[in-house]
Amino acid sequence: MIERQGRLYWTKLVEAGKKQRKNWIQQWVVLLANNLLFYKDQKQAVMTKSMPHGKPDSSCDLRGAEIDWARDKSSKKNVLELKTVRGLSLLLQHEDISTIQKWLTAIKVTIQRAVIC
Ligand code: I3S
Asked: With a 6 A CB cut-off, is 24 part of the ligand 1 pocket?
């Protein structure tokens, strides 16, 4: 079930504990019960029986993750930082404050509900 979807800018910040060079890109992002999925565009997110998640470029496991406003991590406004249990840290950004607030709330609620296996 899709909890939220829309366009966001995002970049990796840390992967497997190692700081990454930022590469901000705008992608179509889909929030599911346990995962955040990133697609080149909305067309790639069409879910079918044979491809239940469509064709994501990348994904992020939300179980046990943490999300909050990113302070001092970017010169951009309205930036969130998502940290996963596997040492992945992502920045998510949208120009519109109310849109990014909705993403923050939706991801927080989803993380709280996500089952840790
Ligand atoms: O954390 P930084 O170094 O301020 O991040 C900026 C750089 O990664 C920059 O890339 P290069 O140093 O490869 O030219 C990006 O283009 C910027 O977008 C990064 O800063 P912001 O503040 O936009 O996250």
From this structure: yes
C-beta atoms surrounding 16 within 10 Å: 8
Rounded Cα gap, residues 51 and 48, in angstroms: 5
**Tokens 């046990």 sit at which residue?**
64
pLDDT in tens, 51-108: 988 999 999 999 999 999 998 999 999 999 999 999 999 999 999 999 999 999 999 9
Distance 22 CA to ligand 1 centre (A): 6
Whose C-alpha lies nearest to ligand 1, atom 7?
22
- Our answer on whether the CB atom of 48 is closer than 6 Å to any ligand 1 atom is no
* Atom 20 (ligand 1) nearest CA: 74
Concatenated DSSP letters of the chain? --SEEEEEEEEEEEETTEE-----EEEEEEE-SSEEEEESSGGGG---SSSTT---SEEEE-TT-EEEE-SSS-SSSSEEEEE-TTS-EEEEE-S-HHHHHHHHHHHHHHHHHSPP-
